[in-house]
Design brief:
This protein is an alpha+beta fold. It has one helix and seven strands; from the N terminus they run αβββββββ. The chain starts with 9 loop residues before the first helix and ends in a 16-residue tail after the last strand.
Length: 129
């Protein structure tokens, strides 16, 4: 009788079984990390910038609402929270036409328009060209 005939080949498969489960989860971890760095993280940063922009609104800023209305911020009221601290109110007053002011929610502001310098191609007087 051969003494090696009684040894089960299952002992050799134990090591590959443990390594196989790690290899199976590696693509899932890779896919999640790609989604995190390409989709989730940039979106979180964009939301953080948007919150900072909305908190920094001040009188005279030119804004665009979510509905596409362009106006100038006229009043940003402050309210007291439950601790007595002054915080910006959720509503702001925007002038959309001369002497026409509307109250909009701060969250509906889509963007703040920064003034763009004119792209004038005429030479400046007094300068030789």
């Amino acid at each position: 009788m051969n003494p090696f005939a009684l040894i089960s080949p299952a002992y050799a498969q134990d090591m590959t079984g443990a390594l196989g489960s790690v290899v199976q989860f590696a693509p899932l971890v890779l896919i999640f990390s790609v989604f995190y760095f390409l989709l989730i993280r940039p979106q979180q940063q964009k939301q953080k910038e948007m919150r900072a922009m909305l908190l920094a609104l001040k009188r005279g800023d030119k804004v665009v609402t979510g509905g596409g209305i362009i106006g100038t911020v006229q009043r940003v009221p402050m309210v007291q929270d439950k601790d007595g601290k002054q915080i910006p109110a959720t509503e702001i007053e925007v002038e959309i036409a001369p002497n026409l002011k509307v109250t909009v929610l701060r969250e509906t502001i889509a963007s703040v328009i920064s003034p763009v310098a004119a792209n004038d191609t005429r030479p400046v007087k007094g300068r030789a060209s």
